[in-house]
Amino acid sequence: MDDILIFSDNVEDHHERTRRALQRLQDSDLFLKAEKCEFDRQEVEFLGSIIRPGVVAMDPVKLKAIIEWEPPKTVKQVQAFLGFGNFYRRFIRDYSKIVRPLTELTKKDQPFLWTPDCQRAFDTLKKRFTEEPILQIPDPEKPFQIECDASKVATGAVLRQQGEDGLWHPCAYLSKSFTPAERNYQIYDRELLAIVRALEAWRHFLQGSPHPTEILSDHKNLTYFPVNVELQERIRDSKLRDNSVVEYITLKGKATKRPEFGKPEDWSDDNGILLYKNRVYVPPDNQLYRDIVKMHHDAPIMGHPGVQKTYDLVKREYMWPGMRKFIVQYVKGCAACQTSKVNTHPIKPGLIPIQHSGDTRPFRTITMDYITDLPESDGFNAVQVVVDHDVSKAAVFSPCTKNITAEGAMDILQRDVYRRFGLPTKVISDRGPQFISKAFKELHNSLGIETALSTAYHPQTDGETERVNQELDLALRLYCANNPENWAKLLPQFEFAHNQRTHSVTGKSPFELLYGFQPEAAGTVRTTPKHPSTEQRLQSLQEARENTIAAHAQAAAAMSRRLPAAQVPLKLGDKVLLNTKNLRLPYVSRKLIPKRVGPFTIVKVLGPVTFKLKLPEKWKIHPVFHAALLTPYHTTKEHGPDYVRPPPIPTPESTEGAEWEVEAILSRRTRGTQKQYLVAWKGWPASENSWEPEKHLKNAQSILRNYKKRHKLS
User: Fold this and answer.
1) Which residues pair with 609 in a beta bridge?
2) Under CATH, which number does the domain 662-710 receive?
3) Residue 93: enclosing H or E segment and its boundaries?
4) Diameter of the chain by CA atoms?
5) pLDDT digits (tens, 9 = 90+) for 74-111
6) 563-650 adopts what CATH topology?
7) DSSP for 275-333?
8) pLDDT at position 349, please?
9) pTM for the full model?
10) What backbone torsions phi and psi does residue 420 show, to the nearest 5 degrees?
11) What architecture is the 242-332 domain classified under in CATH?
12) Contacts of 462 (CB under 8 A, 6+ apart)
């Protein structure tokens, strides 16, 4: 939205009109930039003019440019100077007559020759500008007076109204050169043409005026002319806004500094619209650029194309310097594209290894997870997987049920892990319901065990258990596909198979790091055993564990060196979009779910790749996310503000349709036998208010009761 001017006779009316205008904008999802708004002003710059109570003047900034303007040395520089003059010609009496020597220089195939007449016209026009003429603002309730005149080269006119001092003050000046055919008119016809041009130019003031308009002319014969003329309305389809059309040449020498504009023959004029190679040249105006790109990007028939396709569409009809760069930034700032399109350049942070505790004892730091939805075997349909994270990488597989509770998980840990290896100092897990429950945390806290939960929807945090899970999944498919109810009996064998394999980092098996020897398995060749002393075995075991820790540290260091930290361009206070692939959003079809929702603000940086977001209060999910699930949200001045609607509340189970939060009930009506309520939705603009039957408000009973109570409804 650009260029809104509200004027009033007094402060009270002004505040009321301003409030109504802002309400209309809000209802229509239109936005204003606060820093570009000015309120309660008695002087304002508007469309290149300074408006004060009752009068309008030229902008002093542009006048300063006139004072410093050097005499033109090329045709294009003459065009630039005349373009500035055309914008303010209504302030200058006899404008066309003054600039005629300059306009002659711009004719095609005319040699450029700066004559004394040209210099005189240039100096006269600068002098007229620097005298800062002031025009009175037309009042439609007062009578108008028009003074017309014609010379051999142009017509001129002045529109006047009487001021508070009783004198007639100019409201506008009009001047226009004759065409070659019009120069052959008789003086009578030239003077009459001056009147016709004035009436056409100011018809929007004169038509509907409650007073007759007085026309002054120095040609006496015209007083006998029976003035009863029906002026023909002329409607022109303008592709550019009138206030911006002349801006393209208001900067001195602009044309000569743009070699990409090509040769002079590339330019043409179509009824006042400047064309470059038959494309409309758009003058410097960001809002105008934005309107044009919006038509070719946001419209339903365009479908939000990417940068290249948007650029191809725009350049068919328009051109301006830096057009591609503007379109790149516009598309970058489009909220619809950011939330719905595939992200071809996602954040790809490297995996940051979990810090080693330094303890050489096994099972001091453990990771745990579940493999679920297995066919029932001996009453079980899931496996609890526990892995020694820091030292041996040994695993413990325990059969369980999918809906195991926190107490059940603790019972298995005590039976299969703690009784064999002692209590750990730290338990790493995902955000399963067993691990985030209050009971699980309290049981571990009472034992002095730290619980560390992974970020939401990022299983790579507990990568150790995830890899073991993949290994166990493979074993179950290989050995239980034909006898799926038998997997529980085979689980101890799968555990043994994992623990007797050599680990790629340590070079030893988990079994050897736990017990100091490699167990015998089927197919082992028996040789004469050499039994080292107990002391030697303990020493070898300690050395092996220390070497293991060193190997893990070396692997972690190598991983850290590969971490592309620069690929995580997020910091405190940034706005980001959240990937929806793990969210259960209440849409009818997952195909229609936006790929990202937001934007949300980063309120805490918990690590190089872990961030806490400010989520809506109704969202019952953990607010900490890995950088891989986040996308920076972009706002650009080229695109302007977006209206981003709030996403629906994630639900544990998918529902048949989206449910939105009721903010207020505004009105009531009856359609047939059905009572309906006008509902305002929380976080949505007034344009989205809707009439809903009472049965749709079952989750907003308190708001409904309060509405009925206020309006005394049963």
Assistant:
1) none
2) 2.40.50.40
3) none
4) 139
5) 888 888 888 777 776 777 777 777 888 888 888 877 78
6) SH3 type barrels. (2.30.30)
7) EETTEEEPPS-HHHHHHHHHHHHTSTTT----HHHHHHHHHTTEE-TTHHHHHHHHHHT
8) 58
9) 0.39
10) -95, -35
11) Orthogonal Bundle (1.10)
12) 367, 369, 428, 429, 430, 454
